[in-house]
Every structure is written in C-alpha cells, then in structure tokens.
C-alpha cells in the first residue's frame, strides 16, 4: 500500500521507547518499574520497522525520547539514534540517562550523537550530583548537547484497588504529561500498561494491563491513533489521580505498598492542576 500524501498525515507530538527494560540503579517507586524488570535489550531492526510504520501514519514526530531502564546499558545504543534520525529527520531526538554510563561510552556513540544532533537528557539523582561538572565537561568536549533535570523526588501514584474512574485518570494524567509509549509494534497511552507485568510478577499482583494500539492494523490511520491515545484504558483504573512526591532513594528491598498513593481519588471530575 503506498504511503498517504504527507498532507493527510497528522503530527504525533511525542513518543518514548525503551532501549532496555532494566536499570543499574534501584530507585524506589520507579514509574517504569525498571528495578523490577529482567535484563532485556530492544532489537534495532524492530525499532526501525516500527518507526517506518509510524511514518506511514504520521508526517512528523516532534520528540523521540530513548530511555529505559538505563538506555546506555544497551551495547549499541547509537544504532537507535541513527534509525530515529533517518526515519524522522526533523525530530528532537533525546537519550534519557542517569549518567552513570556516560564516561564509559565509546567513540562511535559520541560520533553518532553529534551527527544526529542528539540531546542527552540527564536525570540527575542525588547520588550523581558530584559528578555533574565532569559530565558537563564530557558533553562539551564531545560536542553533544546536555539538558539536566534534577530529580530529588519520585512519585507514588498507584491505586492498588483498581477502582479509579478511567475518565478522571486520563484527564488528570493529560493535565500533567503526554507520553505515548512504543513497544513491540504497539503504541500505549503511557508506559504504565506495558510495564505493569514487572510489578505483577514481582509482587504477585494482578494490575490490569492493556493490549495497546496495533500500529500495523490496516483499519487505523494517524488520526485514529491520536484519538485512541487520549482514550482511557482499563489500566487507568489503577491510577490514584493524585500523585504524591516522595524523596528519591535507592533501596535493596522493594515493597508493593511503596508505589501506592496514600490518598486515592475515585470521583468523576479531576482536581484542578
């Protein structure tokens, strides 16, 4: 089937993609459940296949963020940068990292980042605060842009009872962020549905996931996908609709209750943001 004319394809504002599921830090309340995930690596060929299919649906993706887990644990992280830039040449491509692996990255990684105009989005946790000057100097020397976000808190926002109103959850969520998540040829409203399996497996729970949107479904076009990305899914029932900031911390023993908000809102109207 030939591609639709570019004028017929809408713009997708943003996607996230995991290069790996696991992490080298054990942050409590990680929103992607990365400390609970087994080690696994994305396949660049699968990423290219899926991005090219998204190019069939969307004229542009404004921002593509490559993350995890800790994405720089992937042995060929630069391959995903090359693919993103080739398929969507105008996108703002970013790598989201905790910074622990930056000094160990090889010349090829930095060369690709420079050529692709990538920005390193550094999530600066307290444990890495003293390393910031060295990271800034490294990125300056390599000619790669660095954006620093200080992360002193993580958020507890889970409703383990699963009785939140999905419409309210979606409204609350979308007043704070818009983060469609790409995995295995499917787009999800956020990272929560495709990563609940790690929480369930670790703690023996049964949070409901969601099958996501099959980007190869021949009955869908870009506008259909955009509508569905703003449509609540069953996993939204497990959002507390009131996220609580907790101090960032590394822990050895994770507990299911740490992810749950102490205040859970289940009514029909979302609070003002």
Written description of the protein model:
This protein is of the alpha/beta class and 273 residues long. It has one domain (9-259): Alpha-Beta Barrel (TIM Barrel). 28% of the residues lie in helices and 21% in strands. The chain is built from 7 helices and 10 strands. The strands form 2 sheets. Strands 5-4-3-2-1-7-8-9 form an 8-stranded mixed beta sheet, with helices on both faces. A two-stranded antiparallel ribbon has the order 6-10. The protein is globular, with a radius of gyration of 19 Å.
Regarding CATH, which class?
Alpha Beta
The CATH topology is given as TIM Barrel
Overall structural class, as computed from helix and strand content, comes to alpha/beta
At CATH level 2, the architecture is Alpha-Beta Barrel
Quick structural overview:
With 273 residues, the protein is of the alpha/beta class. The protein has helices at 44-57, 77-87, 107-116, 132-142, 166-176, 192-203, 222-229, and strands at 11-18, 60-67, 92-97, 119-124, 145-150, 153-158, 181-183, 186-188, 213-214, 239-247.
């Amino acid at each position: 089937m030939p591609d639709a004319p570019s004028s017929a394809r809408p713009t997708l504002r943003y996607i996230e993609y995991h290069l790996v599921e696991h992490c080298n830090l054990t942050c409590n309340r990680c929103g992607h459940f990365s400390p609970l995930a087994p080690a696994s690596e994305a396949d660049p060929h699968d990423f290219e296949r899926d991005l090219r299919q998204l190019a069939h649906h969307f004229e542009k993706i404004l921002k593509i963020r490559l993350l995890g887990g800790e994405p720089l644990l992937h042995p060929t992280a630069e391959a995903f940068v090359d693919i993103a830039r080739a398929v969507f040449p105008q996108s703002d491509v970013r790598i989201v990292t905790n910074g622990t692996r930056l000094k160990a990255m090889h010349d090829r990684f930095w060369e690709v980042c420079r050529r692709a105009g990538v920005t390193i989005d550094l999530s600066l946790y307290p444990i890495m605060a003293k390393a910031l000057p060295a990271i800034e100097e490294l990125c300056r020397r390599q000619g790669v842009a660095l954006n620093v976000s200080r992360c002193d808190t993580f958020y507890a926002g889970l409703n383990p009872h699963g009785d939140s109103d999905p419409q309210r959850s979606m409204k609350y969520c979308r007043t704070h962020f818009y983060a469609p998540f790409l995995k295995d040829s499917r787009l999800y409203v956020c990272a929560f549905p495709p990563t609940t399996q790690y929480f369930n497996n670790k703690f023996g729970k049964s949070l409901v996931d969601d099958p996501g949107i099959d980007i190869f479904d021949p009955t869908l076009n870009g506008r259909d996908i955009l509508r569905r990305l703003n449509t609540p899914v069953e996993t939204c029932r497990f959002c507390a609709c009131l996220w609580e900031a907790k101090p960032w911390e590394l822990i050895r023993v994770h507990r299911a209750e740490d992810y749950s908000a102490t205040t859970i809102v289940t009514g029909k109207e979302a609070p003002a943001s």
